[in-house]
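Before the break, one more example. Copy the sequence into your notebook; we will annotate it together after we see the structure.
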Amino acid sequence: MIKVIIGEKGTGKTRRMVEMANAALEESKGEIVFVNGDNRHMIDLKHQIRFINAREFDVLELDVFYGFLSGLIARNYDTDQIYIDGLLDIVKGDLKAIEQFMFDVKSLSEKYDIRFFITMNGDPDNVPSFLKEYIA
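Here is what the structure looks like once it is written out:
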């Protein structure tokens, strides 16, 4: 399962993701991972959630980020949920690359039964068709 939250900058997407991740601890059967491009929200997350600043690992492109996510899963097959805050702030990619990334993440989600939650800056009324099925 993949859920994408799209909204303009400053609309509370990150706050919502932090709240969702913290609340998920009560029902999660495995590890919860929160990936961001900086350390600002690390202290808002409960300590049981694994926080990763992707920029510390020089992850700049979508295909590299997919490999990064695959490595997170390979490290711990008990990963239950992955929260990616500000996908397009962490990495760069055009619409074609984003579409391929979403296809690949969907495959990971189905194969390993992991729930992905992703935020992106943008206009929620002008979402590309390939993202519409994931809008939360």
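The CA atoms of residues 4 and 135 lie 5 Å apart. The chain has a mean pLDDT of 93. Try to locate both features in your own notes.
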